[in-house]
Amino acid sequence: MKVIGKIFVLMLMVTFIGCTVNETPDFIGIKNIKVLESTKTYVTIKGDALFNNPNDIGGKLKVDRIKVLINGNEMASVSSHSFEVPVKKEFTIPLKVNVPYDSIFSNNNIGGIIGSLFAKKIEVRYLGEIDYEVFGFSYSYNVDEIENMKIKL
Fold first, then answer.
1. What DSSP character marks residue 108?
2. Distance of alpha carbon 31 from alpha carbon 52, whole angstroms
3. pLDDT of res. 22
4. 71: nearest Cα among 41, 43, 32
5. CB-CB contact of 141 with 93 (8 Å)
6. Do 149 and 41 contact (CB within 8 A), yes or no?
7. CA distances (Å), 113 to each of 98, 126, 148, 151, in order?
8. Contact of 132 with 86, CB cutoff 8 Å
9. Nearest 5°: CA angle at 88, between 55 and 129?
10. Comparing C-alpha atoms, which of 80, 85, 83 is closest to residue 59?
């Protein structure tokens, strides 16, 4: 029985050593920022955080500290459940947020809205961190992506 245990441990070590965990997944950026829906109560904005994992091991990504700013004013924050990181693959995680309509047209933001109406565009900025965790090791990706979106009048 001791021989089987030693063989099992040896096989486990060979398997683990053969797996590459050279680096954290690469954060490529946030793409496809767009308005999904606009109602009387909120505007839904979505972006995709794009990653590439060159490793044989996955892990988890957690979005918990990303603020959404419109025309330089903080409007909402993105929080979500953990996402499984696929092995040796490029992947995206959705960053979706509902911005209350009242906050867009508040007194604090009225100057930016008037400027946006003349320019026919708004600036949407994702600012914060995405956390990666694998085997007790953690790493935070800084997110600071800006997209100028055309608006229809």
1. G
2. 14
3. 58
4. 43
5. no
6. no
7. 18, 18, 13, 11
8. no
9. 70
10. 85
Quick check: 140 and 149 in contact, CB under 8 A?
Answer: no
* pLDDT score of 143: 92
Q: Helices marked H in 82-140 — which ranges?
A: 101-104, 110-119
Domain boundaries, the chain: 20-150
Residues 54-107: pLDDT tens digits? 999 999 999 877 998 888 888 888 877 889 999 999 999 998 888 887 766 665
- The span from the CA of 66 to the CA of 64, in Å, is 6
Q: Rounded to an integer, what is the distance from CA 94 to the centroid of its chain?
A: 6
* Domain 20-150: CATH superfamily, name plus number: Immunoglobulins (2.60.40.10)
Q: Are 68 and 123 in contact (CB under 8 A)?
A: no
